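User: Design a sequence. Structure:
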């Protein structure tokens, strides 16, 4: 499903939290036989650790929604790399945030000048009006299209999952 990304040895998967960055990054790593790097291991919203991971690694997929605010800078300064931007219905993102009791809304909003609306809407507006036009190589992936991948787990089987659970 993600063979077109094989031209890149460094891939960042970002977008709003709860938009599917974890499963998409795992799917890409699975398909390309790359290492999967989770933002929790390098530091959520930690620019320096993210750049260090990019410099020190090859053939990896980094799941990093916490870095979405700076992905355009990272791609321009530390490429070549591919940016995969996740798209998901905002109501579904909010429902997922509520299901796991996600408390990062205020922290995330501090990174943006705009404060109105949910952080997922703010991130999408920033991507659509600014970042998308200056990221050298990006791909948008719709969360709902991931269901065809062999790693996909149907929604009804994920009802009691936390933020990092998934099935191999």
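Assistant: Done.
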């Amino acid at each position: 499903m993600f063979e077109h990304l094989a031209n890149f040895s460094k891939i960042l998967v970002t977008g709003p939290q709860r938009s599917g960055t974890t499963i998409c990054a795992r799917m890409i790593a699975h398909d390309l036989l790359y290492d999967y790097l989770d933002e929790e291991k390098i530091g959520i919203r930690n620019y320096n650790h993210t750049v260090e991971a990019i410099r020190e690694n090859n053939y990896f997929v980094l799941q990093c929604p916490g870095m979405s605010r700076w992905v355009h800078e990272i791609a321009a300064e530390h490429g070549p790399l591919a940016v995969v931007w996740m798209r998901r219905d905002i109501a579904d993102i909010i429902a997922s945030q509520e299901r796991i009791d996600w408390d990062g809304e205020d922290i995330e909003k501090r990174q943006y000048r705009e404060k109105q609306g949910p952080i997922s809407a703010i991130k999408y507006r920033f991507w659509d009006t600014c970042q998308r036009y200056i990221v050298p190589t990006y791909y948008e992936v719709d969360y709902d299209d991931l269901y065809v991948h062999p790693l996909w787990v149907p929604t009804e089987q994920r009802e009691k999952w936390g933020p990092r659970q998934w099935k191999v």
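The chain is about 35% helix and 15% strand. The domain at 3-157 is CATH 3.40.50.300 (Rossmann fold).
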